[in-house]
Specification:
Blueprint lengths: L1 E4 L12 H11 L5 E4 L14 H10 L6 E4 L2 E4 L1 H10 L6
Parallel strand pairs: 1-2
Antiparallel strand pairs: 1-3, 3-4
Helix pairs in contact: 1-3
Bound molecules: glutathione.
Length: about 90
């Protein structure tokens, strides 16, 4: 499972940093996603946004916004959708 985030998982005042909120929800559901930083900035022209993470986000979703979760064949874009997914898919211990 991979979570694409912007520059990191820093904490901000409420309503909180979307990437951090998504990560917290995944942890609370028992997941330990690999983190890929997209860096860059979506409002910059594409040629200035050539990090590996950002290229992958574009390829996966056709847009630049993170967080994006990839779990198997499932792609979930946006913190609220990821939080909902995490609540519905708690990790089942093996
Ligand atoms: N409503 C979105 C907002 C997400 C958001 O603000 N993402 C920022 C990073 S924290 C972003 O992708 N900004 C554009 C960019 O970094 O290119 C959500 O909750 O997921």
């Amino acid at each position: 499972m991979t979570l694409y985030v912007c520059w990191g998982l820093f904490r901000t005042p409420k309503p909180g940093h979307p990437c951090r909120n998504a990560h917290d929800a995944l942890l609370a559901a028992g997941h330990r996603p690999d983190i890929v930083r997209a860096r860059g900035w979506g409002l910059l022209p594409a040629f200035l946004n050539r990090t590996r993470g950002r290229r992958q986000v574009r390829t996966l979703t056709g847009q630049d916004w993170v967080p994006v979760l990839v779990s198997g064949d499932t792609i979930v874009q946006g913190s609220k959708a990821i939080i909902g997914w995490a609540q519905q898919h708690p990790r089942v211990p093996s």
